[in-house]
Automatic annotation (TrEMBL):
The keyword Methyltransferase does not apply. GO terms for biological process: peptide transport; transmembrane transport. GO terms for molecular function: ATP binding; ATP hydrolysis activity. Belongs to the ABC transporter superfamily. InterPro entries: AAA+_ATPase, ABC_transp_ATP-bind, ABC_transporter-like_ATP-bd, ABC_transporter-like_CS, Oligopep_ABC_C, P-loop_NTPase. It comes from the Bacteria. Residues 5-253 form the ABC transporter domain. It comes from Sedimentibacter saalensis. This is Peptide/nickel transport system ATP-binding protein/oligopeptide transport system ATP-binding protein. The keyword NADP does not apply.
Amino acid sequence: SEEVIELKNLKKYFTISKGISTKKIYVKAIDDVNLKINKGEIIGLVGESGSGKTTLARVLLNLTKPTGGSVVFNGVNLTKATRNEMKKLRTEVAVVFQDPASNLNPRDTVMNSIMRPLILHGMPKKTARQKAIDSLELVKMDVRYLNSYPHQLSGGQLQRIAIARALVLNPKVMILDEPTSALDISVQAQILNLLLDLQESFGLTYLVITHDLNVIRYISDRVAVMYLGKIVEFGPTEEVINNPKHPYTEGLMAASPIMDPHDRDKEKYIMQGDPGSLINLPSGCHFHPRCPYASEHCKEESPQIIVLPDGHQVDCHKYAAVKNI
Ligand code: SF4
């Protein structure tokens, strides 16, 4: 299948100064991430806050430059793209954020919010107006809302508008950053169903960033699990959820409410230790302070990604022995 996004040895390091001291602290927010996303796929990216997943989204949106490696989008290397290629890419990747307030200007009507990206790309007003009407229909909202202001709409409606706006430029890829976290449970499924419908109608590719495993299970084909700047596990969603390989993923699943109700009696492995921080990265495998399987070797040496026979990828020494079976 055709690759639409490829991250190759992607790195985003930066320095911050802490408190009043002038000492600079080195942060490795993305540390050597490799990921290939196929056209029409829905990829979930799961991780706790501070795992680097938001930085990854910012790099993909070209809001921040990587410090190493590359992002290849439809064959074009983002770090080397010409101005024209960049302009085209901006129309091809759209984003929907968690908080509708950061998607929409409170002083703009729905019509103006949706039209803005089109006008900015030089579309005549009349055509833009029609496109805005069409895209409102796509997100199954009545056109009478075109003259509404954000404060007059519910959270679910606002998220539909944000999606309509993301769609107007006919993107190929949508980055959905916690698309349902700010919504009531009852509305979440509606928005996820809408996203699934749109994905199917337009053959879109989604990268869904979330800490919510229910969202991942509901929507994504494959899931990447991120921990302290690295992708520690990547594989088909059901595989990763039902048969997690990395000890961190195992802990995530055990601590999550989507646990199989029949498994209630199973002794749960609850993750020990604090969630870790990008600012004070543990040596060797970053997960070792919390890992029940950690050995001395884990403290000293970082593991390498291992591709298991079923295609599932895992970044843990435990699997070194099964490599190449
Ligand atoms: Fe645990 Fe070692 Fe695997 Fe890290 S490499 S997850 S510490 S077993």
